[in-house]
Amino acid sequence: MLKYIIQRLLAMIVTLFMIATITFFLMHAVPGGPFASEQKVPPEVQKALEDKYHLNDPVIKQYFDYMSGLIRFDLGPSFKFKGVTVNSLIQRGFPVSAKLGIFSVLAILVLGIPLGVIAALKHNKWQDTCVRFTATIGITVPSFVIATVLLYIFALKLRILPSFGIETWKGYVLPVAALSGYSVSFVARLTRSSLLEVFRQDYMRTARAKGLGESKILIKHGLKNALIPIVTVLGPLIAGLLTGSFVIESIFAIPGMGGYFVNAISNRDYTVIMGITVFYAAFLLIMIFIVDLIYGLLDPRIKLGK
Amino acid sequence: MRKRATVAVVLLLCLSFSLFAMGNQEASDSAPAEAEAVPSVEQKITFVVNNEAEDMDPTTSQETFALPVINNCFMGLFTTDDEGAQVPGLAESFEVNADGTIYTFKIRENAKWSDGKDLTADDFVYSWLRVMDSSVASQSAGMMKPYIKNGSKFWDGEVTAEEVGLKALDSKTFEVTLEAAAPQIMQVFNIRCFYPVRQDVVEANPDAWHRDPATYICNGPFKVKEMNFGESVVLIPNEYFWNADEVKLEEITFRTIPEQTTALTAMETGDVDGIYDVPGAEIPRLRIESDELYILPSCGTTYYLLNNYSEGLDDVRVRMALSLALDRTEIVDVIAQGIGVPALGLIPPGVYLDGKDFRDETDFAGVTGVAQIEEAQKLLAAAGYPNGEGFPELRLGYYTNPSVKKLVEVMQQMWKKNLNIDVMIENADWQVFFADVQNHDYDIAAMGNGADYSHPSPFLETFGADDPVHFVTWDNTEYNTYMEAALTSTDEKTIAENLHKAENLLLEESRMLNLYHRGFTMMMGDHVKNWRRDVLNMIFFHYAYVE
């Protein structure tokens, strides 16, 4: 097991290195630079700026400089936001995004999975129809539409929830609802179909034949086996939720990490693009690794490290 | 909802007033109750901005989103009054020598930094040298170094700091020697890169001193209490400000809300007191429903560049035809939601020179607010393209932005309908688009100018030989002569005359497609008084208060 973990960690480092390398060169291949100001900047001032941020060095030198910083966990200064380092952007933004993400993950666990179970148990009954209907809406309607509608109803019309920010617990309600809408619906549908599949298995019939109680059959034999596909999607889903959503954070004015990535690309803020990509990739790799470990717990047939 | 809330407030006020009146029968007869009620209102406001500031160091910052903080925390030699007129700021008086090249400023005795230290002429010398120091790489350097004696040479490292035309004659006397007399210099002094910063805090942390309230030492009416990156900046009064007695607000929160519709919702629910910008689609509704919507003039013009080297565009008749075929009133009404005014010339209204509004004296070369289709068709036919036949397909380039997209589509339709010619719309990121324009790789390109100071020259310089950026493909000796004659003179009349000649030449030759003069839209609650946003987009809460 320890050997397996070490192997996986080494593989992760290699993957991260490759991701960083590819991103670095792709990013420099995109035309335009970070200092195309809207104001008129004379060429000599432009050059002084580029010199200051070492953008006139050969790309390969810039690459090695960046990578040697990365090894020391130094992600460099943002080109766009003067006086702000990429490390501090992540340190400030990630906890905010993560807090919102954790509530969304909780919503998946307390809403998504139970709803899926109910739908599967009441297959083709009205409960099932209700869950399927709501889940379809949740999956098909984009989060910004959900967010805007929620804002309109609860903030503007009813005025019971704030229109922006997460300074109070009330502030979390709308963004979490909008952020988790898709994931909750997706997981509910997945749980339902996976559980229905499991119900048809022979071992379920065996369990019933042995005279086990319905709840024990459902939890120990049904749900445990049905969870494997769910855990598979939960890994990347959680990584996505915790690292923030551009749309939701911008609509609800939440100072998380979601906005940086998208804006950094259009600003050509090289260090931020790199820093966030590497951070997100590392996070995703860890989540996938955890998912793999959970497989082993759920299904003894899956042996790790072979 | 809003009405009901207002009614409730009025009722509450009546009730409290009657209680007050019952308790103080005698007092209620004499003193005006309202005047006494004013100070009891909490003097705190929240104003929404749409983006995190990129750089809050006045000597290097050049973008819009830092302005609310910088304008209220820092001050330069001059400031502006309620009418926008230039009045003494940190300098209480100044003298100019006969040929207009040496300015001597007397700095206020009570001018101090927000930590109580004295603000001296040396602070100005340090700060201005910082702007012109190439190792600092201030984006604003281009707005200072051409004017100050030896400024450009200092940038190039050819002279030492002592040889630059900046001198502290004594602790409160600051002498500036210019390279040559410059007619626009008084306006230029108002630009934020001319504000002083504090040497010790800047040198302790040159790149990040402006990101920490503890080191954000300033000299204006307010100072920073909190900076929450991506979220808010909170200002409180600076007790050492030379005019601190007049400052009434106790706290200003600049809250970042990137999404304009959310900001509007926050405004309409009363969660905030003002918003920096309003979503375009909501303007027609707000014009009717809200009395808190402000449409303010801006010293800016949106125009499109025409490439002289492109086939067809080298003919003045074609350029003029393209210009006349556009309905500028429709453009303003449809695209800009009625914000702004049709641009018949280049310089926006409200720019004064020689005591006159520059705009009033311009000859628009036949361009009017509406399309002149017949005239345009005639010109196009005379140029060899009757009914648009054989006209080359021009590229109309713009940068990714929803309202610019709408604008180019409308222009495309107007040209198709009025002249029967096709233009191909090309879209790119700003970064890519801007590089293309600088490389002259365009036929027609979206551009515009928002001025840093209120003077015709920054608009006209774009089309001159001396423009450092030079994305215009036109080099006209006559134009350059007028510009030089204007910008080396000290006589306002001569300056105005020559700048008019230059602009008129630009318009006669139809060197660009001037479309509209810009405006700002914003909202501010009725209870916030005495704030001001000027044509240069500077927003001042210096002596604002809540009623």
> Runs of chain B with pLDDT <50, length 5+?
1-38
Q: Which sequence of SSEs, written as H and E, runs from N to C of chain A?
A: HHHHHHHHHHHH
Provide the number of structural domains of chain A: 1
Number of strands of chain A: 0
Total domains of chain B: 2
Distance between the termini of chain A: 10 Å
Oligomer: heterodimer
Number of helices of chain A: 12
* Share of residues in strands of chain B: 15-25%
User: What is the percentage of strand-forming residues of chain A?
Assistant: under 5%
Task: Outline the secondary-structure elements.
The complex is a heterodimer of chains A (306) and B (547).
Chain A: H1 2-29, H2 43-52, H3 59-71, H4 86-121, H5 126-140, H6 143-157, H7 169-199, H8 202-209, H9 214-242, H10 246-251, H11 258-267, H12 270-298
Helix pairs in contact in A: 1-12, 4-5, 4-7, 4-9, 5-7, 6-7, 7-9, 8-9, 9-12, 11-12
Chain B: H1 2-23, H2 25-30, H3 33-37, E1 44-49, H4 67-73, E2 78-80, E3 86-88, E4 91-96, E5 102-107, H5 121-131, H6 151-155, E6 166-170, E7 173-177, H7 185-188, H8 199-204, E8 222-228, E9 232-237, E10 251-256, H9 260-268, E11 274-275, H10 283-289, E12 293-306, H11 316-324, H12 328-335, E13 341-342, E14 352-353, E15 356-357, H13 373-382, E16 394-399, H14 402-419, E17 423-428, H15 430-438, E18 444-450, H16 457-461, H17 477-487, H18 492-508, E19 512-524, E20 528-529, E21 532-533, E22 539-540, E23 545-546
Parallel strand pairs in B: 1-10, 1-11, 16-17, 16-18
Antiparallel strand pairs in B: 2-3, 4-5, 5-7, 6-7, 8-9, 9-10, 11-19, 12-18, 12-19, 13-19, 14-15, 20-23, 21-22
